[in-house]
Design a protein that fits this description.
Strand content: 15-25%
CATH architecture: 3-Layer(aba) Sandwich
Strand order of the largest sheet: 3-2-1-4-5-7-6
Shape: globular
Bound molecules: S-adenosylmethionine
Radius of gyration: 19 Å
CATH superfamily: Vaccinia Virus protein VP39
């Protein structure tokens, strides 16, 4: 099985099923505030646990790169564990929240590059970082194998990928089934981490894997927006759909707060001396 081809096929299948894959900065600008709030609602639990999972290799002398840093999900806890943090983030509003969140956390060792990963010149960053990371980003890339190799070229130590994995909230699955009128078959699952693993293994790279869990507690209104955005990648979000989502979330909330438990996979691999 050629796993690069499988990735390409799955990517095309998503696009032809109407699922939006490459979302531009306009989209990320709009969701930045909620995204930032999501991180603060659990004191960066996702990022903290992802960094904790790596504690055997992360060193306070490290220079680290986080690609597609968003509001600092990973970059904020990461910056506290290394000497210097560079974050690549093309969305201006995400950058605004990233810098604000860094200030609030007293972080002073972070530099932000205002561009997309594809716009970064490989020559400028060749072996510049001890660790090159990305979280919840790779699913957007049609040519993921090329982007993984570019990450490796920028690293003199390790590459590190974090990705939500395993299971979608049953309520979201039920909503998807109702909206799409067909049985749910994993369409909104935060998948593709599995393909990253096998693609790397096919290149004979030994990948370390850990699983982390995290809890999100969001006000009803915000959770409704989050689910609406997720479903908007598949269907038009009409007022009727918003009402349906609202009723479902409210029905499962306590004191105006909706709680979800989720998992993510943390993967890292070491650069060989010749790389
Ligand atoms: C799903 S969010 C993930 C944010 C954060 N890493 C996290 O784990 O929560 C994707 C982020 O990647 C950024 N992004 C999208 N395309 C990108 C690209 N081509 N290069 C770098 N960042 C990109 C978006 O602006 C957004 O902030």
């Amino acid at each position: 099985m050629n796993w690069r081809e499988v990735w390409g096929r799955k990517y095309k299948e998503r696009a032809s099923a109407g699922i939006k894959t490459e979302l531009g900065s306009e989209y990320w600008d709009k969701v930045a505030e909620d995204y930032s709030q999501w991180n603060k609602s659990n004191d960066y639990e996702y990022g903290r646990k992802a960094i904790e999972a790596m504690k055997e290799i992360i060193n306070l002398d490290f220079e680290a790169l986080d690609i597609g840093a968003g509001p600092g999900t990973l970059a904020i806890p990461f910056a506290k564990a290394v000497l210097k943090m560079t974050a690549i983030e093309p969305s201006p509003v995400m950058r605004k929240y990233l810098l604000r969140n860094a200030r609030e956390e007293g972080i002073q060792n972070i530099e932000v590059m205002n561009r997309s990963w594809q716009e970064v010149d490989d020559f400028d960053i060749r072996k510049r970082f001890d660790i090159v990371a990305c979280s919840h980003l790779l699913w957007q890339f049609a040519d993921v194998d090329k982007q993984l190799e570019r990450m490796e070229h920028a690293s003199r130590g390790y590459c590190y990928v974090v990705h939500p994995a395993g299971g979608t909230d049953p309520m979201v699955k039920a909503l998807w089934t109702e909206v799409m009128g067909k049985n749910y078959a994993g369409e909104v699952d935060p998948d593709l981490d599995d393909l990253v693993f096998v693609m790397l293994r096919q290149r004979e790279i030994l990948v370390n894997v850990k699983v982390i869990d995290y809890t999100t507690k969001l006000p009803v209104e915000q959770e409704v927006r989050l689910i609406a955005r997720l479903l908007s990648k598949h269907a038009e979000v009409t007022p009727a759909l918003m009402e349906l989502i609202g009723k479902s979330v409210l029905g499962k909330s306590r004191n105006g707060v909706y709680e979800t438990r989720s998992n993510a996979v943390v993967m890292w691999w070491e650069m060989l001396p010749s790389e």
